[in-house]
Amino acid sequence: MSDHKTHFGFSTVDESEKAGKVAEVFHSVAKNYDIMNDVMSGGLHRVWKHFTINTARLKKGDKVLDIAGGTGDLSRGWAKRVGKEGEVWLTDINSSMLTVGRDRLMNEGLILPVSLADAEKLPFPDNYFNLVSVAFGLRNMTHKDAALKEMHRVLKPGGTLLVLEFSKVYKPLEGVYDLYSFKLLPVMGKLIAKDADSYQYLAESIRMHPDQETLKQMMLDAGFDSVDYHNMSAGIVALHKGVKF
Questions:
Q1: Which residues are annotated as a binding site for S-adenosyl-L-methionine?
Q2: Helix axes of 185-193 and 196-208: crossing angle, nearest 10 degrees
Q3: C-alpha–C-alpha distance, residues 88 and 57, integer Å
Q4: CA–CA gap between residue 132 and residue 66 (Å, rounded)
Q5: What is the mean pLDDT of the segment spanning 86-97?
Q6: For S-adenosyl-L-methionine, which residues are the binding ones (predicted)?
Q7: In CA terms, which of 61, 208, 241, 245 is 20 to 30 Å from 201?
C-alpha cells in the first residue's frame, strides 16, 4: 500500500492500485471497444481521429510512436502517411487492447512493430521519433506528468506530440452531456458489452481529466516549448499539439 492517492473515476485509490484497475477495465472492453466507441460517439471518434491524422506534419520515412494505440486506428493512418520507408510503433500498456489492434492491422495486411509499453517508462531512446500520438489514453495514466515528460524525451528536436482526449464541454451543454454520460452510457455498456461498470468508469474518468488550459500547462511543464489546442464537437474533445524545439 502506498501513501499516495489518485483518482479512479470518482473513487480515490492508492496510486499502486490504479494501473491494475484500469487494466481490468480495458481487458473487459477490448473486444467490443470499437463498437462501443461508435455507439458512444455516434461515429464521431472516427472524425476526430481523421482530423488528428491530417493535422500532423509528416513526410515519407518519418518515425511515429502511437501510445495507448489500442485497436490501431491512428497507427493505420500514420503508416499510410510515412510509407514503407517510415517506422510506426503501435504500443499499449494493455495486452488485450494491443492484441486486438495488432490482429486487426495484420488482417488488413499491415504489419507494424508492436510493444507492450508503459507510457511512464517508454522503452525507446532519446530524440528518436518525429511524432508521438496518444488518443483517449492520457486520462487513464496514473502519473500524467511523468508520461508527458517521457513523450517529450523520445521526440526529436522539432518533433510534435498530439494528444487527442475528451475535455471540458462548453458550459450550455454540460447538463445534457452529464445526462448522456452517467445515465445512458452505462446502460449502453450493459446492453452492448455486458459491462456497465467499465463504462461508468470511462464516463467518470472523462470528468476527472484536466480541462484544455490545465493540460496545455502540463505539457509546457513537461518541457514542450509551444503548445496549442483545438476544440472539436463543442469541447467534448480537444486536440493538443506540443512542439519540442
A1: 71, 92, 118-119
A2: 140
A3: 15
A4: 6
A5: 98
A6: 71, 92, 118-119
A7: 241
Mean pLDDT, rounded, for 185-208? 91
Does pLDDT of 163 surpass 60?
yes
Beta bridge mates, 135? 164
Helix, strand or coil for residue 229?
strand
DSSP designation for 11: E
Distance CA 90, CA 106 (A): 12
How sure is the predictor about 3, in pLDDT bands with cuts at 50, 70 and 90? low
Would you say 170 and 233 are in contact if contact means Cβ atoms under 8 Å apart? no
Q: Which fold has domain 5-171+200-244?
A: Rossmann fold (3.40.50)
Q: Which is it for strands 5-8 and 11-14: parallel, antiparallel or unpaired?
A: antiparallel
Q: Which residues are annotated as a binding site?
A: 71, 92, 118-119
Residue 26 burial (CB count, 10 A): 23
Angle at 91 between CA 90 and CA 97, to 5 degrees: 100
Measure the CA–CA gap between 40 and 29, rounded to whole angstroms. Answer: 13
* Residue 141 DSSP SS3: coil
pLDDT for 39: 83
Could you give the CA distance from residue 237 to residue 232 in angstroms, rounded to a whole number? 5
- 8 Å CB contact between 144 and 218: yes
Contact present, 45 and 37 (Cβ < 8 Å): yes
Per-residue pLDDT tens digits for 99-112: 999 999 999 999 99
